[in-house]
């Protein structure tokens, strides 16, 4: 049975030739994400901003304008209504009311009384207070920072400081780029999407470490090669693995996005974006940064190999 190859077995592409372009794209993603975050901000879910969430089921497609008109007339503050998966399932978000838990419960009862004749069943009702939401935001931010720091320390101990620095900067690019994605799309940012951000960091560093390991191996094996040749060689040798892993993961995520339901759609959308940006950063950001951070490949010893696999001790020796 013939094996179909989607990528050359031994590619010989000059990835480092485009390093200025890929780093410029990365800088554009970082700048654009930070500007959008400052100007627009994230669409925080109830987990982070506090408030009341009511999921209801209607008899047939929900009349969103009617729901919106009735609830707005109650003067409960900001109210957002959206379909949740099926046309007869909707989510109602009501901003936190002034006062204690009793005031929130009164708002819930008031809203239910207003729409009761339009609803078949109330599937869930949740309330998150402002203090809990603030604590969750702080804990989420701390978890992200500690994850990045831990990854950087791990790479530093496993490789060298240049590798750790490049990996950390690439991860920062991925995290900020993903936050920019959620800012631009205004997909609700909640605990599930925060988990997507941390998952993206883990996926990206796994890809980066595989490439870095091949860089270190090639640097030790081919001492006569210039550092750009070593980096290109490592990228070419791992490219098929990188693309196949990313594509197969994307196929699974696309199936989850279209058929997994509304509950995990935001989480899945973040992961899809993260796979794309994570693969890009591993190849187009982390490796070029190694070059600019002064990674050296100095000849040493008499038994090192050149790019043909011959050792220096064999140079000039007749082959038997």
UniProtKB/TrEMBL annotation:
Protein name: Protein-export membrane protein SecF
Coiled-coil segments: 94-121
Location of the region described as Disordered in the Swiss-Prot/TrEMBL record: 300-320
Function: Part of the Sec protein translocase complex. Interacts with the SecYEG preprotein conducting channel. SecDF uses the proton motive force (PMF) to complete protein translocation after the ATP-dependent function of SecA.
Ranges where the Protein export membrane protein SecD/SecF C-terminal domain occurs: 113-294
Record's bilayer topology term: Multi-pass membrane protein
Cell membrane found in the keyword field: yes
Transmembrane domains' residue ranges: 21-46, 139-157, 164-185, 191-212, 242-259, 271-292
Entry's family note: Belongs to the SecD/SecF family. SecF subfamily.
Gene name of the encoded protein: secF
């Amino acid at each position: 049975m013939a094996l179909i190859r989607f990528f050359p077995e031994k590619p010989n592409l000059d990835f480092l030739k485009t390093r200025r372009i890929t780093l410029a794209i990365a800088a554009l993603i970082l700048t654009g994400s930070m500007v959008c975050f400052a100007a627009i901000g994230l669409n925080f879910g109830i987990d982070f901003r506090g408030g009341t969430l009511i999921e209801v089921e209607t008899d047939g497609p929900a009349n969103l304008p009617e729901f919106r008109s009735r609830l707005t007339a109650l003067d409960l503050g900001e109210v957002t209504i959206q379909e949740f998966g099926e046309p007869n399932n909707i989510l109602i978000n009501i901003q936190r009311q002034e006062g204690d838990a009793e005031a929130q419960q009164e708002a819930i009862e008031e809203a239910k009384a207003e729409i009761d004749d339009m609803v078949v069943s109330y599937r869930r009702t949740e309330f998150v207070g402002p203090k809990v939401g603030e604590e969750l935001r702080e804990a989420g931010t701390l978890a992200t920072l500690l994850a990045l720091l831990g990854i950087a320390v791990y790479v530093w101990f496993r490789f060298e400081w240049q590798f750790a620095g490049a990996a950390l900067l690439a991860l920062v690019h991925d995290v900020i780029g993903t936050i920019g994605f959620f800012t631009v799309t205004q997909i609700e940012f909640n605990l599930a999407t925060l988990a997507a951000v941390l998952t993206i960091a883990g996926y990206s560093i796994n890809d980066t470490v595989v490439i870095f390991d091949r860089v270190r191996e090639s640097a030790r094996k081919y001492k006569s090669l210039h550092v750009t040749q070593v980096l290109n060689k490592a990228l070419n040798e791992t490219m098929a693995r990188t693309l196949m892993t990313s594509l197969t993961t994307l196929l699974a995520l696309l199936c989850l996005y279209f058929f997994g339901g509304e509950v995990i759609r935001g989480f899945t959308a973040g992961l899809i974006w993260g796979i794309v940006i994570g693969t890009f950063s591993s190849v187009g950001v982390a490796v070029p940064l190694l070059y600019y951070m002064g990674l050296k490949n100095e000849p040493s010893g008499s038994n090192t190999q050149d790019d043909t696999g011959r050792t220096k001790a064999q140079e000039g020796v007749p082959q038997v």
